[in-house]
Amino acid sequence: MYTYVLIPGAWLGGWVWKKITPMLGEKGHRVYSITLTGMGERVHLASKDIGMETAIQDVLNVIKYNDLNDALLVGHSFAGKVAAAVGDRAPEKVRSILYLDAFRPQKIRTPQGAFDPTEFGTLKPGEWAMPLPEQVLDSIGKDVQGADREWMLSKATPWLKRHWSEPVTLSKNFDSIKSAYIFCTESGDPVDEILQGKWGKLEGPYEVIESGHWPMITKPDELVENMLNLSG
Predict the structure, then answer these.
(1) Total tally of structural domains belonging to the chain
(2) Residue 118's pLDDT is what?
(3) 59-101: per-residue pLDDT in tens?
(4) Disulfide engineering: 181 pairs with which of 6, 33, 70, 206, CB 3.0-4.6 Å?
(5) Measured between alpha carbons, how far is residue 135 from residues 113, 118, 140 in Å?
């Protein structure tokens, strides 16, 4: 039995794992679906002051207050850096990290993971969160269609600026954390080049899904199978 802590990516909350949570539970695994402060059902807490430190504490507190000692963190998209920072701070509580079409940190001591998502839109002066543009689905999530698309757009909440603009700095603790990866072929990244090592060394096993950026919505059965394959 594994204990999965699912950390959603940009614009998402714990709701996005709705299809796979019961599937994992039926197989005997424990699942904790995180909603980061300011996102999803916690959108009423959003403010310009919420950033990476709050996100990291969100996950650390789930681990602490649920007495988790062998957590398998699943970080989707930008939340790969959230999962990495959590593993760095609580290595004794984390079994491994699975990066789901996510930011993949390097074993370095300098800040990393800050970026500018202008491909998704721009913010006006004073704005501190970016709504989900429909063209993002047309670009990296073409397979999210019909009722799934309507559902996702109805639940998506603005992505907080400090989630993308703030880096994380990892210590030597991170070097001991086991890693695994799931890549999605239709999410815009050059998967073939990544697997060949042209975008940095992969530190563990991987699986590839023929899907856009949100396989938890469009390929839940395959995602669960791959998660289980990479959890051993």
Answers:
(1) 1
(2) 84
(3) 999 999 999 999 999 999 999 999 999 999 999 999 999 999 9
(4) 206
(5) 24, 13, 9
> Smallest Cα–Cα separation from 178: which of 111, 230, 227?
230
Running DSSP on this structure, what letter comes out for residue 200? S
Residue 212 structural domain? 3-229
Q: What is the CATH number of the domain that holds 197?
A: 3.40.50.1820
- Which residues does 73 contact at the CB level (< 8 Å), separation at least 6? 5, 7, 59, 83, 86, 87, 94, 96, 97, 98
| pLDDT tens by residue, 26-49 | 999 999 999 999 999 999 999 999
Q: Report strand pairing: 129-130 vs 159-160.
A: antiparallel
Spatial CA neighbour of 171 closest among 225, 231, 91, 116: 91
Q: Can you give the pLDDT at residue 217?
A: 98
Structure tokens at 217: 């919505």
Structure letter (DSSP) for residue 75 = E
* pLDDT, tens digit (0-9, with 9 covering 90-100), for 106-158: 999 999 999 988 888 889 899 999 999 999 999 999 999 999 999 999 999 99
- d(Cα 213, Cα 232) in Å, to the nearest integer? 24
By the 8 A CB rule, do 159 and 11 touch? yes
Q: Please answer whether residues 177 and 80 qualify as being in contact, where contact means their C-beta atoms are separated by less than 8 angstroms.
A: no
